[in-house]
Amino acid sequence: MDQIDQKILAHLKQNARARASDIGKAVHLSVSTVIERIHKMEDAGVICSYTVITNDAKVGNDVTALIEISLEHPRFNDSFSEKVMEHPNVISCYYLTGSYDYMVKVNCRSSDELETIHRWIKDQSGVCQTQTHFVLRTIKNIYSALPADPASAE
C-alpha cells in the first residue's frame, strides 16, 4: 500500500459512497485506476467492508455503556466470545490485558434494557466480575485509523 492508496482510503473513510471520479480528481488518477486500486485493497483485505454509521439517539439507542468483564479462568474465553458475538446490543468487544479480561461496548434504548444486558453478561459461564461505565457524551468515535503521515504528527 502506497501513499496514493492511503489517500484513496482517506476519501473512502470520509464517504464510502464517494464516486471514483471524485476520488480520481482529488488524487490525480483516472477513474479506472482508482477502481482498480480499490479492488486490490478489497482483495488484499485492507478494506474489510462498507457500512452505515447511524446516529444512536435517532434510532432509539439513548444509552451507551462500556462494561469491563473478568472471567474465572481462560478456559471460558472461547464460549464467552461466541456468546458476545451473538448479542445484537454488543457493538464491540475487546480482549484486554490488565485487571479485566474483556471490554464490551453496548448500545441500547434505556437503563432498564442495559440492566437486562448486564444480567445476561453476568449469567455467562465463567464471568466472575463486571464494572459498568455509562457514556455521558461521545467525544470521538472513529472506526479505524490510517497510518499517520509523519509530517502531520508534529
UniProtKB/TrEMBL annotation:
Keywords: DNA-binding, Transcription, Transcription regulation. Pfam families: AsnC_trans_reg (PF01037), HTH_AsnC-type (PF13404). Coiled coil: none annotated. Residues 1-62 form the HTH asnC-type domain. The keyword S-adenosyl-L-methionine does not apply. PANTHER family: LEUCINE-RESPONSIVE REGULATORY PROTEIN, TRANSCRIPTIONAL REGULATOR AZLB. This is Lrp/AsnC family transcriptional regulator.
